[in-house]
Please model this.
Amino acid sequence: MLGWSILQHALRVGIPVTGFCNGKTRALAPGATHRIDLDDEPAVARLFEVETPRLIIHCAGVCDVADCERSPEFAHAVNVEATRILCTYAPPDARIVYCSSDHVFGGGAGPYYEDSRPAPISVYGRTRVAAEALVQARPGSLVIRSGLWIGPSSNGRIGHLDWLRSRHARGLPMTIVSDEVRSAVWAADAAARVWELARSSLTGTRHITATRPIDRPALATFVNAHFAIGAVFDTALGATRNAPHLGNTELATRFTDPLATPLASPVD
Model:
């Protein structure tokens, strides 16, 4: 969802960009023109024998926390090994901007700053921490962490908004974790901020922050009403769910420049 939102912003404002999608398991997202499996090392090596980009925004990964718990080897291959391959074969002078996640933190002790110590509680979070380290080892790179992006997805099923829409349309039950607090932002705003950060000279780690944190039931209630979805959902504590769930993972920032300005929370 992040990659698609970032690609759509570029196409909308006229930034020259080439969009790549997963090579095998998904339909080509609108606007994307090429396929690649980043964990296919020979294919990536061949790609960069032809392509010499100056900027690579790396959004690929498996983000389903439950899937990662069930198959940690798969999570490592997609999130970590693929990042290693990308960093190995990308042109040495290419700037890599990696879109990471608030899942690098365990939750419960937020707000978290760029220099807060990562403490992931899930396989997914640990793969994010490992991938961040690989990107940060490259000169000129930037890691961007964010929370929940609220907006449409390329396939109409993923992300907080389309999950509610899709489950409701199919008459499927929905349970929202009640004790998870995140920094939620509109996807269009976050995509624009990623491009601003990516095209800057900033390196290291930056957080995309929101004007206020919000718990998941309040966010779901707002999204449900704002988009007139008509969904009905239950709530449950994170500890009762099968996969690890975050607590308070509000993101904060140490920086004060214009690119550190909080983005509007959807409920503002």
About this structure: The chain has a mean pLDDT of 94. The chain has one domain: 2-260.
